[in-house]
Design a protein that fits this description.
The protein is mostly helical and 88 residues long. It has a domain of 42 residues. Helix content is 50%, strand content 0%. It has 5 helices and no strands. It is flat.
Length: 88
């Protein structure tokens, strides 16, 4: 097998990840939130409660948990050790 350069490796890694959100997103937006509201809970509470449920509900709950955390920033520093931090 011929050697691969970085561009080839990157393109192979990202080949299946281009539209991952479409695969996980529901065809009926807001349905999971309505289920949570009907149960008298917030979406986050309902997702935590149902994340181990079987079938579609468990998948929806896990997706909701991941989607809620997608925009969070890191709470800790990336470089804790002063020797490993990039020079300013």
């Amino acid at each position: 097998m011929p050697s691969m350069n970085l561009a080839d490796l990157t393109s192979r890694k990202m080949a299946g990840k281009k539209n991952w959100i479409k695969k996980g997103a529901s065809a009926h937006p807001g349905l999971f939130s309505k289920k949570a509201e009907k149960a008298g809970e917030t979406t986050r509470e309902y997702a935590q409660e149902k994340k181990h449920a079987g079938g579609k509900l468990g998948k929806e709950a896990n997706f909701a948990i991941n989607a809620m955390g997608a925009g969070k920033k890191r709470a800790h520093k990336l470089y804790d050790n002063p020797k490993s931090s990039p020079s300013d």
